[in-house]
Design goal:
Length: 344
């Protein structure tokens, strides 16, 4: 089976690869990955296709599409519940399932597109929660050794939208195990001012899980960050750049109105900045596009790049590089793309 990857990615760009193999069982996934690796061919692991921009010519690429399914919930112990999820499960569907089962821990990560297996690679997170908060272990087929191993959370060396896998340990995650909480249907304490304001409660309060999920979906939809066939601003791969982390000394050189958040892990020696603020204050507003291009900044959020219909992958990347140059020239900061750029 093969087709253009523009049909399988949320950015709707990407040429036709040499092969697309759909793995529906764990064993299929492992066996085919090993066969492709032994061949020496270029390869791509495809989940939901939501965190990547694929080049227009990938005719030599062999694609392994992860379509494994299954959720196993262990009996609760002292209010903690272990849940093992196969890599091909849709992330947002899984979040909805945990909310229905009254399990807390990932409710604020509703609406994030993609599959469960892709989540640990970039340590997905939103609205005060990160996957690393609840991840216990994963099963991992290592590209370097061709061996299957169970990796604990510490082995993945998580960082902000980062992990050891993303930093250069390629392979295949087959399942993910999380530790969630039974809080009688309530959420974890809220760490998002946006959710708290939307629900009219205070920071640190606990509310019904479904209320948190619904609030997050509403907030994300307002920014075009929920996949919706009727919303052209959602034809994207979500946030295109990570929020940069800089030294506190460097942050003090920026305008006082630039949003910033101190890193509590190092007592404020580093500071996270708003990539969206940097982009807009470098003169690139919502809806911006280069002359003649079908790629554009979202009309709803300056951090999302969108395909306005028929854009090429080259046009998406051209716009991204233009934004990087403008921000670097204005503020001395190089924005780092969040999605994987395949074939560039």
């Amino acid at each position: 089976m093969t087709k253009a990857l523009s049909e399988l990615t949320s950015m709707r760009v990407g040429g036709a690869p040499a092969e697309i193999f759909e793995a529906v069982t764990r064993d299929d996934l492992i066996e085919h990955a090993l066969e492709v690796w032994r061949s020496g061919d270029d390869w791509l692991l495809l989940g939901g296709g939501t965190n990547m921009v694929v080049a227009d010519d990938v005719s030599q690429l062999r694609v392994i599409k992860v379509a494994t399914r299954g959720i196993e919930v262990q009996p609760p112990k002292n209010g903690k519940v272990l849940v093992r999820v196969q890599a091909g499960e849709n992330w947002d569907d899984f979040v909805a399932h945990t909310v229905e089962q009254r399990l807390a821990g990932i409710e604020a990560m509703a609406g994030i597109p993609g599959t469960v297996g892709a989540g640990p690679v970039q340590n997905i997170g939103a609205y005060g929660q990160e996957l690393s908060d609840v991840l216990v272990r994963v099963e991992f087929l290592d590209f370097a050794t061709h061996e299957v191993a169970v990796l604990d959370a510490k082995d993945l060396a998580f960082g902000y939208r980062d992990s050891a896998i993303k930093r250069g340990r390629p392979g295949v995650i087959t399942w993910v195990e999380l530790e969630l909480q039974d809080l009688d249907g309530l959420s974890r304490p809220l760490y998002s001012t946006q959710i708290a304001a939307d629900l009219g409660v205070g920071m640190g309060d606990q509310v019904e899980l479904a209320e948190v999920r619904n609030s997050v979906l509403k907030l994300r939809a307002q920014k075009g960050m929920v996949l919706d066939a009727a919303d052209p601003d959602s034809v994207s791969c979500g946030s295109f750049f990570t929020n940069p982390i800089v030294s506190d000394r460097f942050a003090r050189t920026l305008p006082s109105e630039a949003p910033r958040w101190e890193n509590e892990d190092d007592d404020g020696l580093t500071v996270k900045l708003s990539a969206a603020w940097l982009i807009e204050n470098a003169g690139i507003g919502k809806g911006f596009s280069l002359a003649g291009s079908k790629a554009a900044v979202s009309n709803k959020h300056a951090l999302a790049l969108t395909n306005r219909g028929g854009a090429s992958a080259a046009e998406i990347v051209e716009l991204a590089r233009f934004i990087q140059e403008r921000v670097a020239n204005k503020f001395g900061i190089t924005l780092v793309p969040e999605p994987n750029l395949i074939g560039f």
